[in-house]
Amino acid sequence: MTCPDHGWPSLRVERIVMFLQRIVITRRLLARAGIALSVLLALPPLAAGGWFLWLRGQQPQISGEVALTGLDAKAEVLRDRNGVPHIFAAAPRDAYRALGYVHAQDRLWQMETMRRLGAGRLAELVGVRYGDFALKSDRLMRTLGLYRAAEAMSAGLSPEAREAFDAYAEGVNSYLDGHREALPIEFQLLSHHPEPWRPADSLVWGKLMALQLSGNYRDELLRARLLKRLTPQQVEDLFPADPPGTPVTLAAELRDLDVGEGVRRTLAALPDLGPDTASNEWALTGARTSTGKPIIANDPHLGLEAPILWYLARIVTPDFTIAGATVPGVPLHVLGHNGKVAWGFTTTHSDTQDIFVEKIDPQDPSRYVTPDGAKPFVSRSETIHVKGQADETFTVRETRHGPVVSGLEAGDAPPEGHVLALAFPGLASDDRSPEALYRLNHADDAEAVRNAVRLHVAPQQNIVYADRAGEVGIISPGRVPIRRKGDGRVPVPGWTGEYDWSGFLPSYTLPQAVNPPSGQFVNANNAIVGRDYPYRLATDWPDASRAKRIVEMLGDRRHSVDDVARQQMDIISLPARDFLPELLKYPLPKGIATDAAALLRSWDGAMARDRPEPLIFEAWLRELSRAVFADELGPDFASYWELRPQTLRHVFNTAPRWCDDVTTPETETCADIVAKALTTALEDLSKRHGGNPARWRWGDEHRAALSHRILGKLPILGSLTDLSIETDGGFFTVNRGSTRLRDSAAPFAHVHGAGYRGVYDLADLDNSRFTIATGQSGNPLSSHWGDLVSIWRDGGSLRLSGDRGTLIAAGAEVLTLTPRNTGTQQK
Questions:
Q1: Do the Cβ atoms of 608 and 697 come closer than 8 Å?
Q2: Which entry of 174, 202, 214, 279 is annotated as an active-site residue?
Q3: CB 3.0–4.6 Å: which of 91, 103, 671, 782 could bond 777 by disulfide?
Q4: Cα dist from 345 to 281, 461, 662, whole Å
Q5: Is pLDDT at 2 greater than 60 in this prediction?
Q6: What pLDDT does residue 453 have?
Q7: φ and ψ of 362, to 5 deg
Q8: Could you tell me which residues are beta bridge partners of residue 483?
Q9: CB atoms within 10 A of CB 781
Q10: Mind telling me which Gene3D superfamilies this protein's record contains (predicted)?
Q11: What is residue 101's three-state secondary structure?
Q12: What does the alpha-carbon distance between residue 462 and residue 278 come to, in Å, rounded to a whole number?
């Protein structure tokens, strides 16, 4: 590698970097972290110290002047004391160029891994030394054709939207061509230099989010597996439906096929793209606020990491202003306000995916059976470059329903003579979701918001919005399939045509309303429609506890912006408050269980990090789920294992047969199981925290997992870059603190939550509040790597406002971007 001359001998730097490369790519060294640490500590202090000083000096230029190719006129980037760029430009086109430049300055590694994930090119970068996630992911992305669809989507962009994506790519490439500092440490450790940025690299992010936010296909596969082990009524018990009592069963044509084993293998072969998604949003009309104008609150919940997905930015031009949350790699603001309207998103959790079991033509395996006779698979060859080993070439097949997702690995196969195909609107090449977001960014009023988002395809979202005139609305745009038969909960036969999609719900039939008589719209992924809605969006909906709590807090009073910001930080768990009294009615053993029960009886359900009760309650629920369901579910239990208080209440009240452990000769009662689960939970906690429950703390185990995906695995660097912090909240609180119970090493770590929070004040949009979970920079040696963590955890916020003079007076750094003279006239 070549090191710039910064006063440090390049040879010594190279040796240290090469040493760290070996740590990154060698699993054996990672497993022997103590040895690696000893070796690193043995390096001459001058060398180690010099290397860190050199890296620390490799910061992006944030003041002075830089020439950008393609820029039409001078623009300025004013970074405030929190590292948030305020971009002042003569026109949006130049502002998008500037945004691409600053995104690349601060988050280039995040951008690189995002586009490689979408293109199915991760293994080319990291190989398989970390495990097979990269290769599994690449197989899936190539099979689904996400990047191909992203390339096709660009053709559907209006000239204005295309200009934004082109200008943004020019800004990124201006940084790649002209940066003077070394590339971020991740590039150095992997000896990698990024390719030029393309508009499709930005567009593929929307496809990735559509896939992650529409994960029903995994639920279908799990149900199919369970139906091979359990009765339909037992599966109904596991997934209490709305309305209850609807039977769940496989289609008759599939009863004699070993679908359960086939989908077990398919599910195992598909990579886990992250925890379940969730979000909160509520909108108040002026009649419900202290200002007489609307207020919107929104906090999307995704997996936590460092840096967080989101990046705050503000753009100011003579005719266009926008502020809020961007995603590095994408030129548009995903969430925020544009000075005229404000908006927020939650995921609808509608069922827009189906797994079709396709029958292969027994006379010709290159064809599959349809109602109109056998048809050929549409096939293409894909080659994955794998770092450190031979390329992998495989054939992708598609049916009339979608790509074949079975057979991605050796041994991954559905029933003999069949394949599994995924139908999903998010794979469509005519997806105009990017155009919808562009028009939303530029909407002048509520009507323009509605017109913009009707172009949105996937994932279906619940969008609350308001304008300065005072209109408040909600709309749930997206393509929702109309099924000829079935409810979408299990795989269905593809060869009969009975279960085909006949089209999509027209936009006018989708949930939408304006100016509610109650003065509020609230959604926290709960059912967006009631039982009187004439169409099927979904059969199952997420737990409604967060929505109930928000409604409870709002009451019928007026609220200020400060009130709403405090409500976003609420940590009352309704399941703890409502379900716990039922558990405490059962007889419990003497000793430590009595002490724990005494604490729980006086607890108000607040998931506070300095209290023992949240830890006791969550550990109890964890063991209850295992004690009730693991015996019947066997190897499928791990996929089902979550906090499920609603399901447990259903069991205790109407299906107590689940409490019997089928692996023992005795017949256990629910009272037996409740006592046993508490005893097991307390024994486990005592081993880690001592024998006095009153001294336990939720925060000792509930820590926001803000760690770097690669650097976090390295000795020394892992601890130096770790931003993890004790947090309040839990799975069911408005201040979301979700855990992954199946992780035996850290079952209560906070792995999923509100990486971004926004509160928008339509009376004065400059008074709106913003925060993200880590910091603006993706460089661990930057002062803005983790400077917002405590602010985020403790409910603080930032304002994104101020003119040029005000920002400079407050200490903002000014970077002037000037047009680079290329010898041609810019148009």
A1: no
A2: 279
A3: 782
A4: 7, 6, 44
A5: no
A6: 98
A7: -65, -20
A8: 501
A9: 18
A10: 1.10.1400.10, 2.30.120.10, Glutamine Phosphoribosylpyrophosphate, subunit 1, domain 1, Penicillin Amidohydrolase, domain 1
A11: helix
A12: 11
Dihedral sign computed on CA atoms, order 59, 308, 453, 403:
positive
Number of residues that this document lists for the chain: 827
Q: Which of 295, 62, 102 is nearest to 769 (CA)?
A: 295
Every domain of the chain and the residues it spans? 1-57, 215-274+354-423, 278-351+444-480+506-557, 574-605+612-696
Pairing of strands 492-493, 354-359: parallel
Which residue, 730, 759, 792, is CA-closest to 606?
730
More confident residue, 18 or 121: 121
Class (C level, CATH) for 278-351+444-480+506-557? alpha beta
CA atoms 307, 773, 323, 336: torsion sign: positive
pLDDT, average across residues 390-398: 96
For 663, other C-beta atoms within 10 Å of its C-beta total: 9
103, 172 Cβ separation under 8 angstroms: yes
Contact (Cβ atoms closer than 8 angstroms) between residue 270 and residue 408: yes
In DSSP terms, which residues pair with 40 in a beta bridge?
A: none
Is 220 annotated in a binding site? The answer is: yes
- Whether residue 738 contacts residue 301, with contact meaning beta carbons closer than 8 Å, is answered with yes
545-554 helix and 574-583 helix, angle to the nearest 10 degrees: 110
Question: Are 198 and 171 contacting, i.e. CB atoms less than 8 angstroms apart?
Answer: no
Tracing tokens 């745009």 back to the chain, one arrives at 477
Give start and end residues of each alpha helix (H) in 410-461. 433-441, 446-453
pTM of the predicted protein model? 0.90
448 burial via Cβ count (<10 Å: 0-12, 13-18, 19+): middle
Distances (CA, A) of 285 to 348, 350, 557, 660: 22, 27, 12, 51
Instruction: At 406, list the tokens.
Output: 């079975």
SS3 assignment, position 128 = coil
Distances (CA, A) of 240 to 201, 243, 344, 524, 547: 41, 8, 29, 19, 18
Token pair of 650, please?
Answer: 């259903």
Element (H, E) at 816: strand 813-819
CA angle (561, 567, 568) in 5-degree steps = 95
CB-CB contact of 354 with 481 (8 Å): yes
The pair of three-digit structure tokens given for residue 146, joined into one six-digit string = 């996400």
User: What pLDDT does residue 54 have?
Assistant: 60
500 is in an annotated binding site: no
The burial of 498, by beta-carbon neighbours within 10 Å (0-12 exposed, 13-18 middle, 19 or more buried), is given as middle
**55 pLDDT tier (thresholds 50, 70, 90):** low
Tokens of 30: 């990672």
Point out which residues pair with 296 in neighbouring strands: 283, 760
Q: Could you confirm whether 366 is annotated as catalytic?
A: no
387: alpha, beta or left, given left = phi > 0 and alpha = psi -120 to 50? beta
Which stretch of DSSP H or E encloses residue 165? helix 159-178
Kindly report the CATH class assigned to 215-274+354-423.
mainly beta
Q: Establish whether 354 is an annotated binding residue.
A: yes
What's the rounded Cα separation, in Å, for the pair 282 and 131?
41
pLDDT(59) > 50: yes
Which residues have a Cβ under 8 Å from the Cβ of 179 and sit 6 or more positions away?
A: 60, 104, 105
